[in-house]
């Protein structure tokens, strides 16, 4: 989507352009920063064709896609030094729909085929470039654990494959990269813009009447773009 191509230059331009006029809320070792954001989760999804035990191999034209979602997140950053902090990122769970993409699967079960909720906490080590300034860009790298729960098949998949049971999606452990900026609006509150790229993948499995036991590997790899407010303790 176009927004993820625009956010990085906007963050950089905003950081440089607003330094001269903004009030200052400096950060230092021992400070705790708390941010709340509205976020868009935009998967850069890719999957292979599904494996079918009834066929004894992959079924051509059965790849899937994952849609985007909106939710809220909150993070807590503890400043280990004036420049280095560690962030604990906690998102509210988001709901994503998996849809048929390949021609064969889209014929058997068009549209959304699986619904799932996702919870992806992350721990990120950050470097804050200008801790004393009113505009403070930062970059981070860390790891995320993604838990899939409340998985459901849609009537389209259930009817198209002659009944579906035993759906499961494996949890995922991967890396996350981050770039963001805090912009002070007074001595207690700052605005925040933040973009992350998360390495998330899963294996989906279920049993069906038409294809037997089915499994497929899906790389979700979302861009997570957020805007919000924060404070310092």
Give structural notes.
This protein is mainly β and 233 residues long. The chain has one domain (2-45, 62-152, 172-196, 223-232): Porin (Beta Barrel). The protein is 12% helix and 59% strand. The strands form 2 sheets. The chain has an 8-stranded antiparallel barrel with strand order 1-6-7-10-11-13-14-17. A hairpin with a 6-residue loop joins β10 (122-128) and β11 (135-153). Keywords: Signal.
**Unreliable parts:** none
| Anisotropy-based shape | elongated
- Element string (H = helix, E = strand): HEEEEEEEEHEEEHEEEEEE
The helix tally amounts to 3
Q: Provide the helix percentage.
A: 10-25%
Please report which band the strand proportion falls in: under 5%, 5-15%, 15-25%, 25-35%, 35-45% or over 45%. over 45%
The assigned CATH architecture is Beta Barrel
At CATH level 3, the topology is Porin
Signal peptide: 1-26
InterPro entries: OMP/PagP_B-barrel, OMPW
Protein name: Outer membrane protein W
Keywords: Signal
A few lines on this structure:
With 233 residues, this protein is mainly beta.
List the keywords:
single chain; 233 residues; mainly beta; Porin; eight-stranded antiparallel beta barrel; 3 helices; 17 strands
């Amino acid at each position: 989507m176009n927004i993820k191509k625009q956010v990085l230059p906007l963050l950089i331009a905003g950081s440089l352009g607003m330094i001269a006029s903004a009030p200052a809320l400096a950060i230092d070792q021992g400070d705790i920063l708390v941010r709340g954001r509205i976020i868009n989760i935009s998967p850069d999804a890719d999957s292979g064709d599904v494996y079918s035990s009834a066929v004894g191999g992959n079924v051509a034209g059965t790849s899937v896609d994952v849609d985007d979602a909106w939710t809220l997140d909150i993070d807590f950053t503890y400043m280990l030094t004036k420049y280095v902090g560690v962030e604990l990122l906690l998102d509210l769970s988001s709901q994503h729909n998996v849809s048929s993409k390949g021609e064969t699967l889209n014929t058997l079960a068009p549209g959304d085929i699986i619904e799932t909720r996702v919870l992806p906490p992350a721990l990120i080590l950050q470097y804050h470039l200008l801790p004393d300034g009113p505009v403070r860009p930062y970059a981070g790298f860390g790891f995320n654990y993604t838990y899939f729960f409340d998985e459901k098949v849609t009537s389209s998949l259930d009817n198209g494959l002659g009944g579906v049971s035993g759906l499961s999606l494996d949890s995922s452990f991967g890396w996350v990269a981050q770039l963001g900026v805090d912009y002070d609006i007074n001595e207690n509150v700052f605005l925040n813009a933040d973009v992350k790229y998360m390495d998330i993948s899963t294996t989906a499995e279920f049993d069906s009447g038409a294809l037997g036991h089915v499994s497929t590997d899906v790389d979700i790899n979302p861009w997570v773009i957020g805007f919000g407010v924060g404070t310092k303790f």
